[in-house]
Design brief:
By secondary structure, this protein is α/β, with parallel strands linked by helices. It has helices spanning about 35, 55-65, 65-70, 85-95, 110-115, 165-175, and strands at about 10-15, 25-30, 40-45, 75-80, 100-105, 120, 130, 135-140, 140-145. Strand 8 and strand 9 form a beta hairpin. About 35% of the residues are buried. The mean pLDDT is about 95.
Length: about 180
């Protein structure tokens, strides 16, 4: 993955817009991954899904807690990407009380598939989801890669979470300043 250019994919997001009015003042906004990840140094972590156990109790909250450390070590932004729709990602962010990590919906799995991280999790009724990983992107190119071992489509894993931790990403950022 090192040296690989990030695929340019359109993510369908929802943004608050008071001009919409009503009880749901949000509008659709397309976000291009080239715009989000193409300039500067960003951290992106992918996970199986919103509201799932490890993602909700460990991985996403850990990146939120370490956000200031990651940005102090050189990350311009920290994004969480999951194969969920914008509505689910919004509610999950509210549920977790996220204030710093930005959630990105990859509802169709296009970005995740083009990164080689789309897996089948039918064994737990999830359908197509992301394998757990994290990466540091420098100006649209993968500079640091942290993938959980044992990627598979049949559930022959214990949902590992050892490589894609914010601690590992932080150590890499500190060892590889821009």
């Amino acid at each position: 993955m090192f040296g690989r250019e990030i695929p340019d994919v359109t993510l369908k997001t929802r943004v608050r817009d008071e001009s919409v009015g009503g009880p749901n003042p949000f509008r659709w906004q397309d976000r291009k991954t080239a715009d989000l990840f193409g300039k500067g140094r960003v951290v992106v972590f992918g996970l199986p899904g919103a509201f799932t156990p490890t993602c909700s109790t460990e991985q996403c909250p850990a990146f939120e807690r370490h956000y200031d450390d990651l940005t102090a070590a050189g990350a311009d932004e920290v994004y969480c990407l999951a194969v969920n729709d914008a509505f689910v990602m919004f509610q999950w962010g509210k549920h977790l009380g996220l204030e710093k990590v930005k959630l990105l919906p990859d509802g169709s799995g296009d970005f995740t598939r083009r990164m080689g991280m789309l897996i089948n999790k039918d064994h737990v009724g999830f359908g197509q989801r992301s394998w757990r990983y994290a990466m540091v992107i420098d100006d649209g190119v993968v500079a640091g890669w942290f993938e959980e071992p044992g990627i598979n489509d049949v559930g022959s894993d214990e949902d590992p979470y050892t490589e894609s931790t914010p601690d590992n990403v932080l150590a890499w950022l500190e060892a590889n300043p821009r």
